[in-house]
Amino acid sequence: MTTYPKFGAGLWHFATYVDRYATDGYGEPRSTLDMIELAGQVGDLSYVDLPYPFTPGVGVDEVKDALAAQGLAAVGITPEIYLRDHVKGAFTNPDAGSRARAMDIMHGAAEMVRALGANYVKLWPGQDGFDYPFQVDHRQQWKRSVDGLRELAGAHPDLKFVIEYKPREPRVKMLWDSAATTLLGIQETGRDNIGVLMDFGHSLFGGESPAAAAQLLIDHGKLWAMDVNDNLRGWDDDLVVGTVHMTEIFEFFYTLKVNSWEGVWQLDQFPFREDSVDAARTAIRFLKALYRALENLDMDGLAAAQERHDAMAAQRLVQDALLQSMVPSEVK
């Protein structure tokens, strides 16, 4: 039998959502505990990334009990530093009080990492950026962000922090927008407990090659976590992984394999209209097939084709492995 990697999901995968049209939502709101219960129904999940603060009335002891009841563990804690109080940024907000409140939330997330035994604090500073030319002083924005990140990581040297970059949304232009920019910012902090969580869909949306971006982060020792999903490249659609860019997600995981990268294969999907448990199961079904395809891929033949830059030979090898992988070998 094949031994698969551990699978995880952002707990928001099991939430309900609103958008700017269906402002009444795509379902009744769910609590942190409700979402944990749904995550447990997937069957193949081992980890969840939990937004912090938890929904009102839910405490850390209840979360611990709920995770244990579902056989789940926390992989990360994501502080909600992108809500109404932070519409002009978390690290970069012009209001010092708002910046301090955002920092308090991030310190609280760090305490939750300790309490739940998670691997890292995941920072997604979605409101740090700008919308119009001349709106911000770019030097000041960068300095505030780097200084704030340095301060936060320095206050918790025993913990890991990962930054999830994205080119835009909710800001028209986000500050932490690419693998390269994020690496530069981390280097400027001078802290060795800061890395990157790479979101496959954000990389697509940003016009990167996800495989090339992953290799860059690995070469600098900073690819500490990853999320997978899919999109149509014009927006961060957070579709089920493998439904659009099947070859590129295979190249992404190939890059991880040849670099001996080990970590949780984590879902960051937003099933607005789909059943969230079914969407997670469908995604993991595909990820298992990718894992089998990597085991069957002719690595030596592919390396030789790449040495020659022989695109067609490489594609034939990839297709042979990928298109046979959906049926597990034990049932063929």
Task: Describe this protein's structure.
By secondary structure, the protein is an alpha/beta fold. The chain is built from eleven helices and ten strands. Strands 1-2-3-4-6-8-9-10 form an eight-stranded parallel beta barrel, surrounded by five helices.
> What's the number of helices?
11
> Main β-sheet, in a few words?
8 strands, parallel, barrel
What low-confidence regions span 5 or more consecutive residues with pLDDT below 50? none
Output the structural class: alpha/beta
User: What is the distance, rounded to the nearest whole angstrom, between the alpha carbons of the first and last residues?
Assistant: 13 Å
Please tell me how large the radius of gyration is: 20 Å
The SSE string, one letter per element, is EHEHEHEEHEEHEHHEHEHHH
Major sheet: order of its strands? 1-2-3-4-6-8-9-10
- Count of DSSP strands: 10
Which percent bin holds the helix content?
A: 40-55%
Strand fraction equals 5-15%
Q: Given the C-alpha coordinates, what overall shape results?
A: globular
Mean pLDDT: 97
Topology readout:
Blueprint (H helix, E strand, L loop, with lengths): L6 E4 L21 H11 L2 E8 L7 H11 L2 E7 L16 H21 L3 E4 L5 E2 L7 H18 L5 E4 L8 E2 L4 H11 L4 E6 H6 L4 H10 L3 E6 L17 H13 L6 E3 L8 H21 L2 H9 L3 H12 L10
Parallel strand pairs: 1-2, 1-10, 2-3, 3-4, 4-6, 6-8, 8-9, 9-10
Antiparallel strand pairs: 5-7
